[in-house]
Design a protein that fits this description.
Helices cover 77% and strands 0% of the residues. The protein is built from nine helices and no strands. It has helices at residues 3-21, 25-36, 41-64, 71-92, 97-120, 135-152, 157-167, 172-196, 203-224. Helix 1 runs parallel beside helix 9, helix 4 (71-92) packs parallel to helix 8 (172-196) and helix 7 crosses helix 8 (172-196).
């Protein structure tokens, strides 16, 4: 069985996660590309950005029609995140692939802790109102997430949703929808940075994974409507 066919079921799972909870796909996409599909860390980082950006764009489009997106917040968050992703991508070229994988582990642990903290918060309103913009908080949050996005070649959604909720006071449903818009914008910025640094790309594998991820993301947005906030 070719690697492109093997990628299909993994893409569906990644899409379900991204569409359902607003992030987390990169936690699976990068290891799948490296350890299951045999891609190098550099090309896998680039491919994972494409995969997550496609899933996020599909999910964001579906949730935008339901009025869940905080557009001003998404744009304000994405601007410093784009700058951070460029710097992160440049910094990643000075680090060995093995070091990137090792450094990715504590980032995943931090994300797990943030997600656990999120579940202990109370958000009674399913959608809530979009919060007032706080410039310094948004700049710090966006830039920090952007650096991680560019450095590891991940979407960053597994950090964006907890940050939006715990740091910026966004309700769960709006955090998921807004995260998908941010993921799309920052993912494209980080992708441009990675392509600019000469990262290679396996087009058949990337296309197969991205296509199945898009299908999974659409299903994930519908499944996410049935998920409890806690």
């Amino acid at each position: 069985m070719s690697e492109a066919l093997i990628a299909l079921p993994f893409g569906l799972v990644i899409g379900l996660i991204v569409g359902g909870v607003g992030g987390g796909g990169a936690i699976l996409a990068l290891p799948v590309l490296v350890y299951v599909l045999g891609e190098g860390v550099g090309p896998a980082s680039t491919a994972s950005l494409i995969v997550v950006a496609v899933a996020a764009a599909v999910g964001a489009g579906a949730l935008a029609f339901r009025g869940h997106v905080c557009w001003r917040l998404a744009l304000a968050f994405s601007a410093p995140a784009a700058v951070g992703s460029l710097l992160g991508a440049l910094a990643s070229t000075a680090v060995s692939p093995a070091a990137l994988i090792v450094a990715f582990v504590p980032v995943m642990l931090v994300a797990a802790l943030a997600t656990w903290r999120r579940t202990t918060e109370t958000h009674d309103d399913e959608k809530g109102e979009c919060p007032a913009l706080s410039g310094p908080r948004i700049l710090l949050a966006g830039f920090s997430v952007g650096v991680l996005t560019g450095f590891f070649g991940v979407g960053g959604g597994f950090l964006i949703v907890p940050v939006l909720m715990l740091w910026l006071g966004v309700s769960f449903r709006r955090a998921v929808a807004t995260s998908l818009v941010i993921l799309t914008l920052t993912g494209l910025a980080a992708l441009a940075s990675h392509l600019g640094t000469g990262s290679g790309l396996n087009i058949p594998i990337t296309a197969a994974l991205a296509g199945s991820t898009a299908v999974g993301a659409l299903a994930g947005t519908m499944l996410g409507r049935r998920l409890p906030e806690r």
